[in-house]
Structures are given as C-alpha cells and as structure tokens.
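Record format v2
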Amino acid sequence: MSATADLLCAALAREIAESGIRVYAVTSPATVAAGLAARELGAPGLALASGFTALDGSPVPQLTLGERGLFTAGPALRDDPFDTFALLARGRVGVAVAPAQLDVRGRTNLSGVGGEAGRPKVALPGARGLPDNNAGPSRVWYLLPAHGPRQLVAAVDVVCGAAPPPTSLRRLLTPAGCFELGHGGWTARWLTASGAELVSAVEAFPIVADGAPVVDEPDADALAAVQRADPRGARTVEFAGGPEAAELFAKIGKLERDAVD
Amino acid sequence: MEMHRTELDQLAGEIDDGAVIGIGGAGLQRKPIAALAALVAAGRRDLRVVSFLGSLDVELLLAADAVAELHSAGVSLDGGGLAPLYRAARQDRTIDFHEWSEGTLLCALQATARGVPSLPTWMALNTDLPQINERLRVGNDPFTADPVVNVRALAVDVALLHVPAVDALGNAYVDGDLALDGALARAAGRTVVCYERVIEPEPSRAALSRLWVDAVVPSPAGAWPTGCHPSYGADLDAVVRWASGGKRGEVSLLTRESSPA
C-alpha cells in the first residue's frame, strides 16, 4: 500500500471527524475511504453525499465510486441535483478536492496549465466543481499527492476556484503535513518527518512552519479505520502517477470484479 | 398509454447533423455508448455535445470526428487518468470547447427548463470561467447590486440517457446517482431513454417520470464500457486500453465488437 495514501487518508479522516460538518461530499475513492473512516472516529451520523442525487448514501471506495452504495439513506428517495449546491452555499457541507494547482491565496485549478485563455498547453479534466465550492462558506480540504512546485504555485494558471473568504476554513494535506490558510497566508499545523525540507523547497508557496509539531506516523486509529473502509486499497490509485497508477488501476479493478463475481 | 419504442438505428436517423445532444450519466457510469455508436455509424457530423461529466462518451465522438462543440464541466477516465482525445482537442483547439462548472452547467439547463434566457448565480464568481465561456457573464443583481454570474440558458435538441430499467409506461429507473439526467430531460426538446430491461411499473420508485420521456430504446449492455449498475460495472480493462491507446479513428475499441458481453 502507498504510504502517502495511508498518511493523507488517515489525516483527512481525522480532520473530517473533528470538523463538526453534517454532510461530507465524496469526490474519489480516497475521499470515500476517509469519510467512512470518519464515521468510526467520532462522527457516526455523518452523511456522505456520494452523487448529485444521492446526498445521504453509503458509498464504497471503489474505482468507480461504488454505484451500489449510492442509494440515499434519508427519507427522500431522490435529491434534487441543485441540493448539492444549496448545501455548499449554506455552509452545510465539507468536501476534499484535489486540484492540479493550488496557490498562495487558496485559488485552485483543474482546467489547464500554460498556453493561453481557452487553449491550454496541457489540458486537464476541467473545472468540475471547483468554481462552486471554493469561494463559499463550506469547509474545503485540498488533498495533494505531492508537495512540490508543480502543485503549489504563486498564482494558478487558470482560476477555477476563487480565493476563499477569510471566514471559511481551508486546510491543505500533502506528504509534507497539514497546513491552514489564514489572513497572512499558509501556516503549518503539523509536519511530517520530511515536511520542513519539502516546504522550504517550494519557494513560490511560502508556509510559516516554525514551531509546528512533527508527526512521524499516521494516526494509528485513523489508519486502521481507513484500512477497514478500503481493504482493497482503491485509495492508492490517485496518489500514484504514470505507469504505477495504471498498474494499480488494473490490479485493484480486478480485485473489485472478483469481489462482485 | 404505452411508451413510444424505437431502435438504435432508427434513432440515429432521427438526429440531424449539428444537433445539440445532451448525454446522460456521469464519469464512467451510464453513458449511452451504443446509441452514440449508432450516431457515428450513421455518419452524423458537427454534433454539439453536452456532457456534464464526460468520459468515453466524449472520446467515442471525438474518435469519429463527430464533434463541433462540447459543453462540459470535465472529461476524464476517472482513476484511469486523462482522456487522450479530449485533451488533444482542447490543446489543439479542434473543437469549440465551452468549459462550465458543475453548478453553472446545471443552472444553464435549469434556465431552459424554466423558460428564462438566463439565471443568476454566485457560482464561478471571481474565477476565469467567464473569460473562457461566453455563456457566463458577470453582472450585478438588480436589487442589491451584488455581483452575480448570469448563466445563459442552454437548450438541448435531444437528451440521450441510459438506464438499467424502464417500465411499459416509460418511467425510468436508476439504481445509484441520477447525476444531471433529470435536468437534461427537462431542458431537451426530446428525451430518448436507452434501457437494459423492462420491469413492472412502480412509479413511486422511478428516477425519471415518463412525463419527460419521449421514446425508449432497448440497448442491453449499451453503456459498455461504462457501467450501468446493477446490471454491470465499468469495464476497467477497456478503460485502461483506451487510456493508453485511444486514437482518432479507433472507434471499434469502444463499440460492441470489442465488448466481452
């Protein structure tokens, strides 16, 4: 299993459990694993919004987000798709997102890198929900598989998610640790063993890290809960890259098929 | 009253070149691939495609050079990585790409459904989307002068949906997330629902009322390689094959000749 996936999922699970949010919107297998684990870590009533019309479901951390877990558990069989955005506007939801770029002001990008407006040099999937969740009062975590100059920049190439309001809590989880956006910029809440070195290597994305505690290992209880939620390791795919990601995708996909058969 | 039933070949003959096609499903779930393949086989060209969260649906149409315009909040192969032809089309600007957020695309469909030329929203404010997408214009609310994004209505000629089941009346049943299928149906001049099987009517459980359905089309395994829960999951091997080898003209990789079913 990927150490990065375990570290970040465990940290996210603990963050969600302690946040007090009532609805958590899942966006990927890793975020499903963290949400399910959060229920074990002190938020048993946490609703998991697992689709645009299934806002109180029980998803499973499958590579395709586990359609069989998307039935709504609440009294309404179907939710209006606009409910997702109403929850965001009312500050009643938390979501973890993985933008390709995050900048010093908390702006996000999943559209493209380089090039010109409307014609990126490197096209990415597209804005998705970033313009809808970043500038509102809801809770947002940025979950990045690496702490480097490609992901963390002075200014994003395309502003998909606007700078968040000062009153909205924004935290960043990377292999370097956990960071919070405040009036003066980003500060470290805790660092991994290699965190200080990783932070100082990204000059364009300054972080105040003095005095931050060092966390050597993932929270054991949170990690155990994540592993129970995701025994096949679907969470690892999104923290890998290139051929390794393709290999993991095929391998875990086979495990999922075998489990169904 | 029995629902009008048609066949895929006949359906393709009823859709004109240049039509605005709204594709249901999201990501690797419930894409009407067989119906799109029928359009490709019939030689349809210059389609204007609306795919909320696209994947192999968009890739298939791009592979066939059938797309003039694409409206989407994002296209990818989920855990399988980036969508190769979509990426190339944006980088080379070979199609007219309209980038939306999830929420603003929903607003555009809802505006059409409500019969108004535009709807104001807070979503996408202070982002680059209005610079990229001419259908998003920043203005001021007439009552408060607060900044808003005015989202132009997006009308769809034909919505093509794929569901696991319909009944004889034309009600559609979806186990899992309905995504934006309901909004597409309400914004479309005509809604065609492809289905896996016919079940006994149970209207209170229907995900989409027959009020919004104009025709149904039998299409067993017709979402392949995407999934159609509970009938079958996404074919992750096929997704990986496409991610690594998908090219223009390679339509057969995504059509039934390649299906294991």
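The helical segments of chain B are 8-13, 33-41, 56-63, 84-92, 102-114, 129-132, 181-187, 236-245.
The CA atoms of residues 139 and 148 of chain B lie 5 Å apart.
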